[in-house]
């Protein structure tokens, strides 16, 4: 339910900037009383007589006690993020000042905002649809060029426009078929079944593209889980350190010391790779290490990309083959990395028959740019070339797209079987319902609660 006149009675307040001391903090209010409540504690101009989108210097006082000098920005309804009256108070970024100002505002009639409540109001007041609201959260947490680009496009309505277009086409057919129901006795067909079938095939093709884009979308949003496997002393920690450019893993000469999993992220050309260092797969009697082997297998299972690192001086091609088979990578991309080439440059020739193999020296930083390039090429980046393609990044959207697809299958089957218009119409309505969940034409309180509770307070 999107309504343009969702009118909240409450005026909410929250810190909009990050917790903790900073140069400036911004406290935000939204609701019918946002301006009048602020006006009660603000000394300066009468805020209730000022125009929207103006900025006012003054002080905040608790009775006569001066709390801070502040700048107040005014946004008069409906010209604000939430479409309600909004005030933003920029104060000095002391946690004490922030707490004091919020306390006074609460006393004057505001209440603390819940998680995501500002954005929820923006949605309920028709400022943005649900997919756009979700993109606000993605935008705030975006941490690479590409995840930023995808979130920005979704927030500005690119994805929503595509979904709405699909819906509009289906609505047209649904109404034609429903019209047939009114003339049931006359046995007429207003909706051309061939055209409908073609349309559904078109829409399903688009849905397949969108669903396929999720694999990439997920990678962009969450990073590529990449596991580094290799025997103790192969140089895994050293390589990880080189990739991370800092000493996060413990490098040691004692085999089997990397028992813990160290996870960190490296961005290669805007894509994040989450590296997981493992204990390796050495068959062992040592109980602690045996546990490590089991966990290594588990990490390989969870990974999207496996780097198998080996010491080129102590590993024979036969051994490498056996080790990699033992990994049971189940079709996952595996990049074989021959390390310690500095000590034996000519050894690489022995491994000429292996595909996806690259020689490096981790400790001497040799061939690292080539390794990064090879890592990048293992990820399906085709979709990234075409900037106009919509990329789905949200699991909730995937579920709705799948439901739409299945309902459209039912429509096609229904037409093929020549079932009644009524049943065809009902299947189309089901597909419309599923599509509508994405942009929020169809919502439930639970769904909204689920989405907005994941936001921070103040968003
Ligand atoms: P891990 O057990 O696989 O994590 O291996 P480490 O990263 O702890 O490295 C084991 C030993 O190999 C350390 O003494 C490293 O300095 C050494 N090492 C790592 N990379 C190279 C390399 O490229 N060349 C040489 N010569 N030694 C290396």
Q: How widely separated are the two ends?
A: 21 Å
CATH topology term of the largest domain:
Rossmann fold
Strand order of the largest sheet: 3-4-5-6-2-1-7
Q: Count up the helices.
A: 15
| DSSP, total strands | 13
Give the name of the CATH superfamily of the largest domain: P-loop containing nucleotide triphosphate hydrolases
> What structural class results from the helix and strand content?
alpha/beta
> Mean pLDDT across all residues, rounded?
85
Oligomer: single chain
General form:
flat
Rg over CA atoms: 29 Å
CATH class of the largest domain equals: Alpha Beta
Bound ligands, named by name, code or SMILES: guanosine-5'-diphosphate
The major β-sheet equals: 7 strands, mixed
β-strand amount: 15-25%
Q: Which bin fits the share of residues in helices?
A: 40-55%
Number of domains: 3
CATH architecture group name of the largest domain? 3-Layer(aba) Sandwich
What is the element string, with H for helices and E for strands? EEHEEEEHEHHHHHEHEEHEHEEHHHHH
Which regions have little confidence, pLDDT < 50, spanning 5+ residues? 1-5, 246-254, 256-261
Binding site for K(+): 233, 252, 254, 257
EC number: 3.6.-.-
Organism: Adhaeribacter soli
Function: Exhibits a very high intrinsic GTPase hydrolysis rate. Involved in the addition of a carboxymethylaminomethyl (cmnm) group at the wobble position (U34) of certain tRNAs, forming tRNA-cmnm(5)s(2)U34.
How would you characterize the overall build of this protein?
- Helix 4 packs antiparallel against helix 5 and helix 6 runs antiparallel to helix 7.
- It is built from 15 helices and 13 strands.
- Strands 3-4-5-6-2-1-7 form a seven-stranded mixed β-sheet. It has a six-stranded mixed β-sheet with strand order 9-10-8-11-12-13, with helices on both faces.
- The protein is 45% helix and 18% strand.
- The N terminus is likely disordered.
- It folds into three domains: 115 residues, Gyrase A, domain 2; 141 residues, Four Helix Bundle (Hemerythrin (Met), subunit A); 156 residues, 3-Layer(aba) Sandwich (Rossmann fold).
- By secondary structure, it is an alpha/beta fold.
- It binds guanosine-5'-diphosphate.
- The site of guanosine-5'-diphosphate has 20 residues, from helix 8.
